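My current task is to audit a protein record that another person submitted. Please read both lines and tell me whether the tokens look consistent with the sequence. Do not assume that whoever made the record got everything right. I have pasted the whole thing underneath without changing anything:

===
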Amino acid sequence: MRCCDRQLERRSAVFSKTVLFRDANVVVAVDQGVKGEFPEQTWLGRKLRVGDVELEATLPCPRWVMVTRDFADLSEDRLVLRTIVRHADQNIGMYANVVWPGTLEAGTAVTLA
């Protein structure tokens, strides 16, 4: 799971392309009122509800060199990884375990428990 981060999008134009984080199974759009550059980093150990599905955030998701590689119509950009290391301790997103299975649908609200 990964959170789209507004601050990093501003730091690197290519960062806003979610295709760079192609291992993400769930992408969460965070409301403008949420504070902090990386709100998903506060989810560790917490449960998230997505419709009838319940997930538990278990580990931060470290990013490596793959986010800098050219992919589809994006050219190589080493600034992406440098920015992640400098501002997010190399972690963007969160690994999660399924506590209660179900069907995920685009646009379903995500709540923290």
